[in-house]
Amino acid sequence: MAHNRVLQWATFARSWWIYDAYHQCPFESAKRLCIFLQGQHKPIYHPLSDIGDHVVVINTKDISMKNEYWRKWRFHHHTGYPGGYSQTSAWRLHDLDDTKILHKAVYSRLPGNLLRRRMMRRLHLFPDTEVPDDILQNVTDQIRQVQLIPKPIHKYSKEDIDNFPKLFDWPEEYVIDYSKKKKDEDTEKYF
Amino acid sequence: MAASIRLGSCIRRILCQKTSLSPLNVVQRGYRNKLRDELVQLYRLREEIGPEPLRHRSEWANWNYNVELFAFGKRLGEDLKEETLRTVFSHKCYIERERKKREDLGIDLQTVSLSLEDNEQLAEQGEVLTSRYIKGYLRHVYPLFFEEGISAVHDYLMSEEMLNYIGRHIGITDLMLCSDFPAKDSTVVKTLKALIGAIQQEKDEERAKRFIHDFILPQLIGVDVNETWKVVNPMGLLTAILNSQNRGLPEPRLLRQAGSNTVMAVYHVGIYSHKQLIGKAPGETISIAEEMAARDALKNLMKTADSRPALLLGKLAEDLNFDENKTNISAIDFIKQHEPKQAAEISS
Q1: What integer best gives the mean pLDDT of chain A?
Q2: Which of A128, A157, A170, B149 reaches 20 to 30 Å from B169, CA-CA?
Q3: What is the pLDDT of residue B343?
Q4: Å from A107 to nearest chain B CA?
């Protein structure tokens, strides 16, 4: 009468997670995704057993990088032939394939054993929110994002901006937004 | 001085030589060219003859039946009389064989009696007591478990396989006086029952019950009692139980699911009654999960869930007083009595 068989089934079943990469650092995200891909969040975890979960990542085209990383972070590649070495900056790689940076970040974060390729096949990357239905139907839960998404100034309403406490008022001639600069006829005539 | 030492060492050398020359210590030198042939010949011979036949322990050296019998009683901590122990181990088949043997030899059985009693009556007595005590104990420990379940666990403990396992491990195989060799499982089981019967007859019933408690009931440790009872329609039984308690009818709900488009799909279904979760279980499909959740709910209601307290064994069970005549409710009767009206109409 017992249901011990299905408890075993549930223990080893793979669950599916969704992760929104919008405005997220790819390297910090990779750190978190690898835990789920390897199954480190499960009590039965063992490095040699293949018990990782599936992870669906959306909005990979909107990842963010800190400082000058888009320009200065370089991805290296060697074809294996003499003179086959090449390196690409992050912005260029992202231009060529907008899922590639996250793919490489996760791949390099996973342990270099025989399970790595299999775990990578459980990582489903999508540049935007368009995910095929048969994949989306499998999803059970979502993974928390690694960083807070900053709210840009244009998302604040005028009321919020006006109510924001100020220490002083800017002088009228002080230009904050150049697009909204009044045209000065006196100076205009010199251009 | 020096001469005497030399003389002594000489003598010692001679003595040593003498001892090493004994025919037992001759060391063979060189290759044994025929060794392989000899071994192959021995091997083929063994293949032709077949394996060595199994022999009873009494056919080997250092066998004293009386001593073994005495040691057996001491080992169990039961001070039984020698005659009683002898009766426990004497089977009907053995006595008949002995009688026939004597008849063939022309010995008059009336003048030289066999003076052996068989264990048939003791075994019967032991079986009745064991069966009654196990059932009473199980009903006491699992008061909400249905009678069918109690019977299933009882049958598991009283099965030939289980009693044979226990009997062989307390060493009654070598002591049995029976015509079959190697001993049949059924003979071992009969002897064990006869032993319990003998304890009851010679000591008292309490002592025999302690024996059952110490040797048979501990076999339940690590056994899931729910596994032994096969429920065909768990949802029907669950409905009847809830109906009898005036609680809401069971309502299965899908709690969560994963990988529904894959072969490794898993669904978790919970059973609710009056908005209260009474059991939940996973499954490969929704229908399997629903059935398993019903089984889980039954386990919770019958208080045989995995978190149940440990069995009362050893010192905990010393002052155990329970009514052996009390029986639990039978599941079939219970369903007939408490089936909801609509369902009863459909089934009829």
Answers
A1: 93
A2: B149
A3: 56
A4: 23
Distance from CA of B133 to the nearest CA of A (A): 24
Number of structural domains found in chain A: 1
Q: What is the DSSP letter of B177?
A: B
Beta-carbon contacts of residue A114 (< 8 Å; ≥ 6 apart)? none
List Cα–Cα distances, A190 to A177, A180, A184, A187, B271, in angstroms.
22, 20, 11, 6, 82
Per-residue pLDDT, averaged over B285-295, amounts to 96
Structural domains in chain B? 65-221 (1.10.1520.10), 228-347 (3.30.160.20)
Assess whether pLDDT exceeds 60 at residue B15: no
Map tokens 């599936």 to a residue: A54
CATH of the domain at A180: 3.90.1180.10
pLDDT of residue B288 exceeding 50: yes
Residue B22 confidence (pLDDT): 57
* Residue B213 DSSP code: H
* In contact, A155 and A142? CB cutoff 8 Å: no
CA of A37 vs chain B CAs: smallest distance (Å): 15
Interface predicted TM-score (ipTM) of this complex, two decimals: 0.79
Query: Is residue A175's pLDDT more than 60?
Result: yes
Instruction: Please confirm whether the linkage preceding B182 is cis (ω < 30° from 0).
Output: yes
Domain hosting A146: range is: 4-188
Mean pLDDT of A42-54: 95
A1 and B262: CB-CB below 8 Å? no
pLDDT digits (tens, 9 = 90+) for B227-256: 999 999 999 999 999 999 999 899 999 999
Contacts of B257 in chain A (CB under 8 A): 140
CA Rg value for chain A: 24
DSSP B126-143: HHHHHHHHHHHHHHHH-T
User: Helix, strand or coil for residue B278?
Assistant: strand
Interface mutation vs chain A, best among B145, B228, B241, B260, most A CBs within 10 Å: B260
Residue with the two structure tokens 């002083």: A168
Per DSSP, the residues of B15-70 read HHHHHHTSGGGPPP-S--TTHHHHHHHHHHHHHHH-SPPP--GGGSSS--HHHHHH
Backbone Cα Rg of chain B: 34
Give me the amino acid identity at B1.
M
- Measure the N-to-C terminal CA separation of chain A; round to a whole number of Å: 91
Q: To probe the interface with B, which of A6, A14, A124, A137 has the most B CB atoms within 10 Å?
A: A6
Sequence-ordered list of residues with C-beta below 8 angstroms from that of B155, at least 6 positions apart, any chain: B228
- Asked if residue A55 lies in contact with residue A75, where contact means CB atoms within 8 angstroms, the answer is no
3 state SS of B329: coil
Of A4, A7, A138, the CB nearest to B261: A138
| CA quadruple B338, B342, B346, B348: dihedral sign | positive
Say how far apart CA B228 and CA B158 lie, in whole Å. Answer: 13
